[in-house]
Specification:
single chain; 274 residues; alpha/beta; 4-stranded parallel beta sheet; 6 strands
Length: 274
Amino acid sequence: MACAVLNSNKSKTDSLLSMRPRLQPLCVADDRTFWPWLTWADFALQRDSAADTTVIVPLAGLADWGLGHAYDAEEQVLTAVLRDALRLRPASARTWMLPPLRFVIGPDAGCICAVEPPLAHALIDETIASVAAAGFTRIVLCNASPWNEELIDAAARDIRISRGIQMFCVNLSALNLDFHPVRSKSRRQLQTLLTHLTGRTPENVEAAPEKANATYRDETVRPLAGPPASAAEVAGEGPALLLKAARHLASLLDEIAARPPLPNGGTLSVRTYP
């Protein structure tokens, strides 16, 4: 987990904070790339490379996904994959990660602390406006919740138009870690990964009968059928699932980093036709 102590003897060649044993963890993160552990001096040294720096904004809701794990399952998976993906990238890769935005859409009855779409959209917009004020204009919305996939697409488009910021979207479902109760083919893998990350055997909840011919319109979250595997039983599969997802995400971040900055400072050209 991310934690830090200021290093008073810091030089320009070693501008980032000196990482020492844990103080107060904010979330699971790679200390080397975690935004809250930077100082104003660190930001000043990064100004010249701001256009080539990627800033990641994670989004994770709080919900019972029927996997026998806690409400923070989305954040547990998302931040662990992000941490390992960022560790796989070279030290020269210019990337910062913010703490997760947790107040997002949650339409299912099993969601808690959810907000209405306009408020979630405004939260994303205000967060990115703050990032842009620090000089960074290449931003990735990295989302865990299937309920928020349309939200980040719409928010990214609107922010690109209104603020001239280069926006990208990555969903956990694209990494074959999909929480969706119907379309997902990876609920068992998610349960295994969560068991590995938490070290806790899932609760064995009696599963409701599956609805025949269920479609995406029937998005009822039902407990995963079958007895859950213990932490000891997933000792081999859990780390492999995490590594596979982290490698996939690291490759996507490499592709994003290779994209050139937007022309004209992100300003959209207005064209008129006769």
